[in-house]
Design goal:
CATH architecture of the largest domain: 3-Layer(aba) Sandwich
Order of helices and strands: EEHHHHHEHEHEHEHEEHEEEHEEHEEHHH
Number of strands: 15
Mean pLDDT: 93
Helix content: 25-40%
Strand order of the largest sheet: 3-9-8-7-6-4-5
Bound molecules: pyridoxal-5'-phosphate
Distance between the termini: 28 Å
Strand content: 5-15%
Shape: globular
Oligomer: single chain
CATH class of the largest domain: Alpha Beta
Length: 499
């Protein structure tokens, strides 16, 4: 039944519930060894009267269903994914091998410390490695995502001030920031105070100065920022905030542009998060499970979330939970250990020189795109960028073709669209981040594609405005899908039962 419509979402292949036939099965199970019992005798009125309406499908039908779904999806394993700020680099398969080693994968989360010394050693070494990369004293591997790392860092900042009897309330955030920054402030009870960036796309001290006072708990700053530019005044900005007793939070999501070349800790930053799924090749996964470690300077150590891995004098490692000033636990057990194994594998595969090389290539690739795309497209800040570059739909105005149309058309050419309409400071923005793992041939193909779309917009704008034409789904009502998602199948399309 192609094209069955479920409230705004169109599925071009049948749902698994629509496949199969009564009593078809893909399983052959041995005959039960226990006697048939009347369910009512066991469960009373809870007993099911009718069988559950489950799909009855053969094994090939089930396999084809899931493989078809996977083929309709876009992944870094199928094509280039230049989604700016998200650092969609290739995830090496050796990471998966390491994470599946039984000694790691089959550990019980409550095993006593003396039975998991190998796992603790990996956590310890990962912490030391990340601390070295970011120039911090310690790193907590506990948080489950970048955004949760932000929240953790801000909680530690709040606890740090409170321990000195201070209760500043404001966090200063430049208007290029990622939306999670103000959200993390609000979640932690801070007031997020936005301030404008200078004309050249970076924060200048004169523009920050009017906002810095005794009520500032921290400044939260992304470097390089979300327009792909290095914050050249970062050390001065940090000093201005430190002078008033505030701390400097560094959003580390863009660390892929700095690794091996500059360390946030050396630039005046006190606490930052890592996004292991961006910089350190763990899978992005649909919202988790992930890992967003937090690196911090020594004065914040008393407030770190628990457990903390500590080494005894005799060399053994233990998980310390009894810490009076801790901000507490942010997730279960030690965090997402499988992600730690993958990130550690990547660190060891790359080594110090490899991480430097990754940074060089990420920055080189972005600048190659900036120059090549700049021949046709409006480049928002046309000077040497870091790991990502912003172009806009400015030159397509007369054709009434927009950034969204271009993004949709790119899918017909086999590319995942870039990040669109972000950063907010550039009208009609497309934020393109190639990462270090794409070849020159692929970058050239992307440039050719964007040149072709630019040409199409001039000669046949309808073709672009009605794209995508070749994907299994066309344009969705994205607002409806986000606001009123229909997540449950019902036999006749009736509204699903709540609860
Ligand atoms: C991705 C990103 C975040 C949020 O990180 P998640 O791991 O997705 O929660 C925060 N800031 C910036 C600049 C980002 O790019």
């Amino acid at each position: 039944m192609p094209g069955s419509a479920v409230s705004g979402l169109c599925f071009s292949s049948p749902l698994i519930f629509e496949l199969g036939a009564k009593e078809r099965s893909g399983a052959s199970l041995p005959a039960p060894e226990v006697p048939d019992v009347d369910p009512a005798a066991l469960f009373g009125e809870m007993a099911r009267v009718e069988p559950a309406p489950l799909p009855e499908v053969s094994e090939p039908e089930a396999v084809r269903h899931y493989v078809r779904l996977s083929q309709q999806n876009f992944a870094i394993d199928t094509g280039m994914y230049p989604l700016g700020s998200c650092t969609m680099k290739y995830n090496p398969k050796v990471n998966e091998w390491a994470a599946r080693l039984p000694g790691f994968a089959a550990l019980h989360p409550l095993a006593p410390d003396d039975a998991i010394q190998g796992a603790l050693e990996l956590m310890w070494r990962l912490e030391r490695g990340l601390a070295e990369v970011c120039g911090m004293d310690r790193v907590s591997l506990h948080p489950a995502a970048g955004a949760q790392g932000e929240l953790t860092g801000l909680m530690m900042i709040r606890a740090y001030h409170a321990a000195q009897g201070r209760h500043p309330n404001k966090v200063l955030i430049p208007d290029t920031a990622h939306g999670t920054n103000p959200a993390s402030c609000a979640l932690n009870g801070f007031k997020a105070v936005p301030f404008p960036v200078g004309e050249k796309g970076v924060v200048v001290p004169e523009q920050l100065a009017p906002f810095v006072d005794d009520d500032v708990a921290a400044i939260m700053i992304t470097n390089p920022n979300t327009v792909g530019l290095f914050e050249t005044h970062i050390a001065d900005l940090a000093a201005m905030v430190h002078d008033k007793g505030g701390l400097v939070y560094g959003d580390g999501a863009n660390l892929n542009a700095l690794m091996g070349y500059a360390r946030p800790g050396d630039l005046g930053i006190d606490v930052m998060q890592f996004n292991l799924h961006k910089t350190f090749t763990t899978p992005h996964g649909g919202g988790g499970p992930g890992c967003g470690p937090v690196g911090y300077k020594a004065m914040l150590h008393p407030f770190a979330p628990v457990p903390v891995v500590e080494r005894e004098d005799d060399g053994t490692l233990r998980l310390e939970t009894d810490r009076p000033q801790t901000v507490g636990k942010l997730r279960s057990f030690v965090g997402n250990f499988g992600m730690m194994v993958r990130a550690y594998t990547y660190l060891r595969e790359m080594g110090a020189d490899g991480l430097k090389r990754a940074t060089e290539l990420a920055v080189l690739n972005a600048n190659y795109l900036r120059v090549c795309l700049g021949e046709r497209w409006h480049v928002a800040y046309d000077r040497t960028c870091m790991h990502e570059v912003v172009i806009s739909d400015r030159h397509l105005k007369d054709a009434h073709v927009t950034t969204m149309d271009v993004a949709k058309r790119m899918m017909d050419y086999g590319f995942h669209p870039p990040t669109v309409y972000f950063p907010l400071v550039v009208k009609g923005a497309m934020l393109i981040e190639p990462t270090e793992t794409e070849t020159k041939e692929t970058l050239d193909e992307l440039v050719r594609t964007l040149e072709t779309i630019s040409e199409e917009a001039r000669t046949d704008p309808e073709l672009v405005k009605s794209a995508p034409h070749l994907t299994s789904l066309r344009r969705l009502d994205e607002t409806l899908a986000a606001r009123k998602p229909v997540l449950r199948w019902t036999p006749d399309g009736a509204a699903p039962r709540q609860g």
